[in-house]
Write the structure tokens for this entry.
Amino acid sequence: MEEVVLLETLKEYFGYESFRPLQKKIIENIFKKKDNLVIMPTGGGKSICYQLPAILLPEITLVISPLIALMKDQVDGLNANGVPAAFLNSSQEEADKQAIFQKIDKKEIKLLYVAPESLQFVDRFLSDGKVSLIAIDEAHCISSWGHDFRPAYTQLGYLKNRFPSTPVLALTATADKATRNDICRQLNIPDAKKHVASFDRKNLSLDVKQGIKRFEQISQFLKNRQKESGIIYCLSRKTTEELAGKLKAKGFKAEAYHAGLAHLERSQIQDDFINDEKQIICATIAFGMGIDKSNIRWVIHYNMPKNLEGYYQEIGRAGRDGLPSDTLLFHSYADVIQLQKFASNAKNEDVQLAKLDRMKQYSEALSCRRKILLSYFGEFLEEDCGNCDICRNPPEFFEGTVIAQKALSCIFRLKGTEPIGTVIDVLRGSQNEVIRRNGYEQLSTYNIGNDISWRHWQQYLIQLINLGYVEIAFDRNNHLRLTEQAKKVLFEKETVYLADVQEEQLKTPEEKAA
Ligand code: ADP
Ligand code: ZN
């Protein structure tokens, strides 16, 4: 497809002058009939990637979307822009469905939004060659590695078999590397080109504070924010209500929001917030999905989120207009213990616990938090961000290149097949079953770090993970393995600075709580 045609279509139907980074490349790939996986933060411009090709492609485009509530908005928006679109989901009457089928027969529809549960209807009358493109929105829902697994998504893998010559476009705002690979595997698009947009939201400040006297800290935070809109995320419904009550008593227009409220009440609160009638929403994570309010100036996490994807998505609701906005996370060991309990009852316990661990490491970080957050999404920031509490108030550092070299070469010798505990045991020359069984005493890195305590090593390794030299393979029993960046330390003598570890930080949650 010629570039001028793409640009003309973009202008005519969407009113934009140019494509955002990646949009053009993705669209061109679709016209080459290739499969694509798009990872872009919320607000990055994913919809254009399939809506624009849909207008130009000869046959219909299927859009699989999990959110029935949002489907109607999207379809109304498209129709208003002159793009014939419709949706199919379980909330519709049979007659409405029949009317849509007839329109499809007459080729009067370019985009058809379908809930995964309703795919069987489509299956009845569409065949390969009669579908130009299959877009799968919120594709991370297919993966139990992701944070929003939906069973109905798991059947989507059959689409590629059913429509082998139709390109598939999978889109998501939240996918770590393990989830990305899992999405492609499950959708049967192993060769999909992966397009990863930057997740960096420079206008969001990042702050973490100890979760003590939280309400006093929040009152302090709100002192110069009398008019600004914000969200406070809490773990339990009860907390949202208590907090909203206390804020109301202080004269704030605050409201609690959670899944226990009636549907009508919830949409009223949502509207009031969007129209600035309510200033503060104290909410569980039920709040926010699909809310398009550009001037949210701050987000507070009263409790720790259970993983970094959720955290990133929730703070990402602030500052969509690009103006400076603040985020504050309260770090509490009681929360960690509570979340550990939730995670250990989950089906994929290992994954959830490992993700919680990353969340905890982020909260306890000693180096630029944005670097840590972005490295979780596979991005490497060259410079510290200057807009997080650590950058503004850095801890004491020492030159830890030798320590880093020892740790990295040990992981290298272990070929990325052991978790953090075994790596430390090898470094410290421990004697145990795993070491003996694998003959790790023979490794050149065995016992090269016995001058450093077990817990210090643990802290240093966490720092190396946070610095982006090491990653945790969630899909392989949490084994540690080296990243590309590690080569700089091992082979190019890159200097590594590590933070001095305070005794306080070496205590376990239980010890600290005591
Ligand atoms: P996502 O689905 O990734 O969350 P959207 O597709 O809803 O993002 O797009 C986010 C916003 O950016 C929308 O208001 C959209 O109209 C706008 N947008 C998308 N592409 C462009 C572009 N090329 N130029 C200007 N604005 C764009
Ligand atoms: Zn920083």
The two ends are 66 Å apart (CA to CA).
